[in-house]
Amino acid sequence: MTMTKWELLDEAYATLRASVAGVPADGWDRPTPCAQWNVTQVLQHAAGDQLAYAARLTGGPGPTEDPFAPSGVLAGPPTGLLDPALAAAAEAFSAVAPGDHDVAVPLPPFAVPAETAVGAAALDAAVHAWDIAVATGRPPALTDALATALRPAADVLAEPLRGFDYGPVFSLAPGADHGAAAQLLAFLGRDPAWAAPVA
Fold it and tell me: What positions does the domain Mycothiol-dependent maleylpyruvate isomerase metal-binding occupy (predicted)?
């Protein structure tokens, strides 16, 4: 497993790996909080996004299919798709230095400070880890501590991508004690209480 010097990114990647490893054999067609996609498609999207980050940083190859139109068909085991994507992104981000001002990213504004770029890639991985975990009936994969660390990137990037990468802000019930994970998910347009439909 390739590690970066960015603890936040390594934690998000570990979270995504654990969510994918926990998908049961019959779980790949299950619906997810991403209304148009099943678990396989979320995996394809998440892996494709990380390859897109790697490609922007290195000029190397990007995803072979559009991450925003995943086919839902895997050519091999899920780890055969995910592991190379995370390894490529980790290697690319290991060359990014703290304090770099113009780090290339695959979505607008296309160049951001290093900490925002790392946060964006980590945010993508961690939120899709949550999607996969809750879709397969397992405990949410996004902790309040991780969500707190991801929130600065979300605050910078969500609004420019609202309606494309992120949905409208989800309204949380007033008066309840919502943790950082629930607040982040709601800010990104997800219902933090989403649960897999009962078969």
Answer: 10-133
